[in-house]
Specification:
Low-confidence stretches: none
Largest sheet: 7 strands, parallel
Radius of gyration: 19 Å
Shape: globular
Number of strands: 13
Order of helices and strands: EHEEHEHHEHEEHEEHEEHEEHH
Mean pLDDT: 95
């Protein structure tokens, strides 16, 4: 299958591209390298450095069988301070991409969506039927794109799947998280283990959870990427499937820090801080639909394994720098 991967030089996009190449697919990565990395594009994939609004020309030349769409702005805080950038990039960019997909009759479209569309959930685990109440322009832009995709699928016969991620972590094939402005807990904890930070801050210790700290659902990036390959096979013409991807089990902030101490053998100082506005106490996925629709289930759900894989790549990068 010929596949165009937008944002394929980023974290999840590069791991998915690597799995696509390993499975024998012909992969073209489209990435402007604003947040991605040229050396993350796997051997065997072709890189086109351009904005996704250039997709019309690329689709005309490549005639792919599918588009996997990862390219997006994804910082919640930045979306609050600069919402216009998120609407232009995430919604405007995807609209241009979908127009090109329609114009060139690309039959399959898989979208990297997010659990941020649910906002602060009323119940957990969160199913796809839960009310969507995004609390940031980032989440709202992703939800708007889900609506766009649904309209294009139903009107134009595109076989589409949106995959709503919970917390992605770990590493695969030497590919881990590399963000200029890191906001995710596990990389921040590992940077503390490496001495790049003097401590990790726990934002709130009085949440209504067993140990008083926030609980999140962590999914291994290799499991997440594999779901995209399964989505290519499961996509049906004229339908837009939406599937949550998570382990279905939550880990608290304290549990993550304790696991990182076990894995790294380092002390990892932690300090208690104030709650952050907008943080839900618990975010855990129901992945029943992904199991039923895609035939997917997490193969690497163990928190220590997720952190160990992330640590191996992050520590190696630290030793080289």
């Amino acid at each position: 299958m010929r596949v165009l991967v937008t944002g394929g030089a980023g974290y999840v996009g590069s791991v998915t591209s690597a799995q696509l190449v390993a499975a024998g697919h012909e992969v073209t990565v489209l990435d402007d390298l604003s947040t991605g990395h040229r050396d993350a594009v796997p051997d065997g994939a072709r890189l086109v450095v351009a904005d996704i609004r250039s997709a019309d020309t690329i689709l005309a030349d490549e005639h792919p069988d599918a588009v996997l769409h990862f390219a997006a702005r994804s910082l919640v805080g930045e979306s609050v301070s600069d919402p216009a950038a998120y609407w232009h990039a995430n919604v405007g960019g995807t609209l241009a991409l979908l127009d090109a997909v329609h114009a060139h009759s690309v039959p399959r479209f898989v979208f990297s969506s997010t659990a941020a569309v649910y906002g602060d959930p009323v119940t957990t685990p969160i199913a796809e039927t839960a009310e969507t109440r995004p609390t940031s322009p980032y989440g709202a832009s992703k939800l708007a794109v889900d609506h766009l995709i649904g309209g294009y699928a139903h009107a134009y016969g595109v076989a589409a799947v949106s995959l709503r991620y919970f917390n992605v972590a770990g590493a695969h094939a030497g590919l881990g998280e590399r963000h200029a402005h890191e906001t995710h807990l596990i990389p921040l904890v590992l940077d503390t283990a490496l001495g790049r930070r003097d401590h990790i801050t726990i934002h709130g210790t009085d949440w209504p959870t067993p140990d008083g700290t926030c609980v999140r659902d962590y999914i291994h990036v290799g499991d997440l990427a594999r779901a995209h390959l399964l989505a290519l096979d499961a996509a049906a013409p004229g339908r837009h499937e939406i599937c949550n991807l998570g382990n279905g089990h939550g880990f608290s902030v304290r549990e993550v820090i304790d696991a990182a101490r076990r894995v790294t053998g380092r002390p990892i100082p932690a300090r208690n801080g104030e709650r952050r506005s907008g943080d839900p106490a618990v975010l855990v996925a129901s992945a029943d639909r992904a199991r039923e629709t895609l035939g997917w289930r997490p193969e690497l759900p163990d928190l220590d394994r997720i952190i160990a894989d992330a640590w191996a790549v992050r520590a190696a990068a630290g030793a080289r720098s």
